[in-house]
C-alpha cells in the first residue's frame, strides 16, 4: 500500500520529468505528446499545482516513453583518444537526479542500506541515489584522512603502470547488517569495482547491487559478467554502454 509520503514523492517526480521534457520540447509539442492542455502543463511545470496521483502515474509513464535518458547521458560525455570525461555529466544535477530515479526503481526491492562510492568522482551520483533510496553513503578514498584512526583497506596492482592502487574506508562505516549498492561513475577496466567489492566484503557487509553509470570498451565486461554470476543479473545495472568506435 502506497503511503502518503510515497504518493507525494511520485507526484513531485512527475513534475520533475515534465521539466526535463520541457528542456527539449515547446509547450505545443508537450501538449501533443502527453495529451494535456498547455495551461495545465504550465501550472505543473511552474509548480503551481501537483498532479493527482493517477495523473502522476500517467505522466511518469508517458515521460519515460519520450525521454531518451541514455542518450542524454552520452551527450554529456566528452571523448578524447579512447577516454571519456564525465565532468559535464557530473555537474548536470537535474540529469543525475533523473538517472538516480531510474536506478532506484531497479533496486527498490534489494533492501539497500548504504551506497558505496569512491571520492571524489562517485559522489555526485551517490548523493542523488542515496536521497532516492533514503540511505547513507559509505565513502572510500584513495588517500587516508589524518583524523581517522582505523581503516578497512584494499590494494590492487594496476597492470598498465605497475603501480599499487589503494582504497581506504573508515572502519565502522559498514557493518554486518548492511546491504551495499556499489556505484561507479565511469568504468574502463573494472579494477575500481573489484576493489570496492573486496572493501565491502572485508567490512563484513553484503553486496546488494552494483551500478555503473557509463562503461566504455570491453576490458571491464569480464568483471561485470563475473559479478552478474555472483550477485544476480538484476543486481548489476549498467546504465550506459559506450561502443568501441568511441575508442
How would you describe this protein?
The protein is of the alpha/beta class and 247 residues long. It has 2 domains: 4-67, no CATH class; 71-246, Rossmann fold (3-Layer(aba) Sandwich), CATH 3.40.50. It has 10 helices and 10 strands. The protein has helices at residues 4-22, 27-34, 38-45, 53-66, 69-75, 87-91, 93-106, 123-133, 191-202, 221-231, and strands at 78-80, 83-85, 114-118, 136-140, 151-157, 164-170, 179-187, 206-216, 236-238, 241-242. The strands form 3 sheets. Strands 3, 4, 7, 8, 9 and 10 form a 6-stranded parallel beta sheet that branches. A two-stranded antiparallel sheet has the order 1-2. Strand 5 (151-157) and strand 6 form a beta hairpin. Helix 1 (4-22) runs parallel beside helix 4 (53-66) and helix 7 (93-106) packs across helix 8. The N and C termini lie far apart (48 Å). The mean pLDDT is 91.
Describe how the helices and strands are arranged:
Layout: H1 4-22, H2 27-34, H3 38-45, H4 53-66, H5 69-75, E1 78-80, E2 83-85, H6 87-91, H7 93-106, E3 114-118, H8 123-133, E4 136-140, E5 151-157, E6 164-170, E7 179-187, H9 191-202, E8 206-216, H10 221-231, E9 236-238, E10 241-242
Parallel strand pairs: 3-4, 3-7, 7-8, 8-9, 8-10
Antiparallel strand pairs: 1-2, 5-6
Helix pairs in contact: 1-4, 7-8
Amino acid at each position: 500500500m502506497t503511503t502518503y509520503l510515497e504518493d507525494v514523492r511520485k507526484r513531485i517526480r512527475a513534475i520533475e520529468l515534465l521539466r526535463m521534457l520541457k528542456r527539449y520540447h515547446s509547450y505545443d509539442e508537450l501538449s501533443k505528446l502527453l495529451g494535456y492542455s498547455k495551461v495545465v502543463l504550465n501550472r505543473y511545470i511552474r509548480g503551481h499545482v501537483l498532479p493527482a496521483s493517477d495523473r502522476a502515474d500517467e505522466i511518469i509513464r508517458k515521460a519515460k516513453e519520450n525521454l531518451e535518458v541514455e542518450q542524454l547521458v552520452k551527450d554529456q560525455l566528452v571523448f578524447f583518444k579512447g577516454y571519456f570525461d564525465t565532468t559535464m555529466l557530473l555537474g548536470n544535477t537535474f540529469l543525475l537526479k533523473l538517472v538516480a530515479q531510474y536506478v532506484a526503481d531497479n533496486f527498490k526491492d534489494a533492501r539497500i542500506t548504504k551506497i558505496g562510492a569512491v571520492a571524489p568522482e562517485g559522489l555526485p551520483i551517490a548523493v542523488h541515489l542515496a536521497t532516492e533510496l533514503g540511505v547513507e553513503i559509505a565513502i572510500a578514498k584513495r588517500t587516508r584522512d589524518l583524523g581517522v584512526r582505523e581503516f578497512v583497506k584494499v590494494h590492487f596492482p594496476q597492470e598498465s603502470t605497475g603501480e599499487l592502487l589503494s582504497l581506504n574506508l573508515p572502519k565502522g562505516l559498514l557493518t554486518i547488517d548492511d546491504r551495499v549498492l556499489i556505484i561507479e561513475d565511469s568504468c574502463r577496466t573494472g579494477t575500481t569495482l573489484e576493489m570496492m567489492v573486496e572493501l565491502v566484503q572485508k567490512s563484513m557487509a553484503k553486496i546488494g547491487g552494483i551500478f555503473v553509470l557509463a562503461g566504455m570498451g570491453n576490458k571491464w565486461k569480464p568483471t561485470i559478467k563475473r559479478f552478474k554470476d555472483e550477485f544476480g543479473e538484476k543486481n548489476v545495472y549498467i546504465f550506459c554502454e559506450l561502443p568501441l568506435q568511441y575508442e
